Amino acid sequence: MRHLSNTLRFALAIAGWVCACTVAHADGLTDLKAALSRLQGQTPLKAVLEISRSSRQGEGKELEESLSKATVTLEDGARGLQVLYGKDLLARVEAEENAKEKDAKAKTPTLSAMGDIGAGELRPMILAAGTLARRMEKAVFKREEVQAYAGKPARLLWFEFPLESLPEKDRKYIKQYEGSLAIWIAADGTPLASHSKDKVSGRAFVVISFESNNDEQSVYSVVGQRLITVRKEAKSSGSGAGEKGESHVTKTLTPQA
Hints:
Elements: H1 2-24, H2 28-38, E1 45-57, E2 64-77, E3 80-84, H3 87-102, H4 109-114, H5 119-126, H6 128-137, E4 140-146, E5 155-160, H7 168-171, E6 174-185, E7 191-204, E8 208-223, E9 226-240, E10 243-255
Antiparallel strand pairs: 1-2, 1-10, 2-3, 4-5, 5-6, 6-7, 7-8, 8-9, 9-10
Helix pairs in contact: 2-6, 5-6
């Protein structure tokens, strides 16, 4: 009986600890929102950004494939966002521009990669908290689960995007839409990673049917009081008007001391 009593007390203690933890973090959505609010700081950031893009357009004899890569250094601080393009990169850009002038069909992989280095593409990565918060504003929270991430304890929050989250001018062409967002968070609500998907199909101008699929995975890290995206992988595919295409873009942001 004494052994049973000790076992029972131990079991109750463990159960109480589990309940206490559950109560402390009962609302993952609240914890996430609080984390996103505190991680919108302006801690100076210096990092190296590597971009890899591959694409396929068309089929059969009309198939066109391309692979492009580029690396730049960026700094975000009191003077704003600055991007440093290396001499080798600029030399490749100039060579491709010259080749394009001579042959309209010349491949320009570096120029294609440069399209992913504008401020509009960089800001969501270096200011990830604000970006994620704005995405959540259009989403509907569904549920919370306990699910490990990278072998460590974490919580997984599920969201869905309603049709109303899309631009109003586009909705009249859409027949079917599915959109979801999953966010893994640490015990204090800090985002660890996210995975979003959307599938759209519809018809434009009566006779043109279209379909598109997008899949985006991001991994986050904290620099000072700033949340950044250290890796972003986006896959997309689509078809319409007899054409098909797909692309795969990977961006890796490595902070520098």
